[in-house]
Design goal:
Elements (H helix, E strand, L loop, with lengths): L1 H12 L18 E5 L8 H14 L4 E5 L5 H5 L11 H5 L5 H4 L1 E2 L5 E3 L8 H6 L7 H6 L8 E5 L6 H9 L2 E6 L3 H20 L5 E10 L4 H14 L3 E7 L2 H5 L7 H4 L4 H19 L6
Parallel strand pairs: 1-5, 1-6, 2-4, 2-5, 6-7, 7-8
Antiparallel strand pairs: 3-4
Helix pairs in contact: 2-13
Amino acid sequence: MAKLQRKRESELASLHPEAPENVEKASVRKQKIFAVTNQKGGVGKTTTAVNLSASLAALGQRVLMIDLDPQGNATTGCGVHKREALPTVYQLLIGRSTFAEVRLHTEFGFDILPANRELAGAEVELIQMERREYRLRDALAPALADYDFILMDCPPALNLLTVNGLAAADSVIIPMQCEYYALEGLSDLVATLKKVRSHLNSRLQIEGLLRTMYDPRSTLTQQVSAELDSHFGDKVYRTIIPRNVRLAEAPSYAKPVTFFDRNSRGAQAYMALAQEVLDRRAATGESQQ
């Protein structure tokens, strides 16, 4: 048991993100751009992108959500039919449409750049394009002043779509389940972020680790959660997203959980997360609208 504990501590020690050298001294911007990402699937990335966007909007923030996953689940989760969503972020990335042509206003108080299966073909086309890693960042530039927060739902893979998201982001939100194998996935992700920081985006930081699908009855869940707190400190959000039936049901009604059942534990957790995001922003002295 002690040997297993030492092994875990050794793995966790390698996860600490080093402070980036020569951080980009860009002019202070009002908006924050978050990539919601994890190379492991099924950890709540899309759920977090949709519901945090809706919750921030409910708190009076101007929010844009970008669906970078060809599955388009974030798109349908916002009440947008994938087959009717044309043009999409695919046309934006390859230069066939402008930001204004792709942007849609949702009934939930925030905007979205939708996606569908067409986006899967973007990788092949992007390979041949100039500034292929910066296509999204360049496309967003004219609209940055319109938003307080921009959230990107990244696919569970390190491909050109994810790279575009990381190159455009200020920081990443990492949803993760508190299970043993999640630690190994987190180690791989931190290594990826270091490479992106070194070669593509020197300002990229870890915004926070978000514990999702949390079941306090599991001893392993409690142990992994405690280890994350111990080794990552204030990088771990105090808000914990519980396992919640209403949270799982909301996408089938094409609504964020705050509109599906605002009194559910899932809705309350994401509203608390949104407030924590705002509180962190205020604590760092960044301006808000």
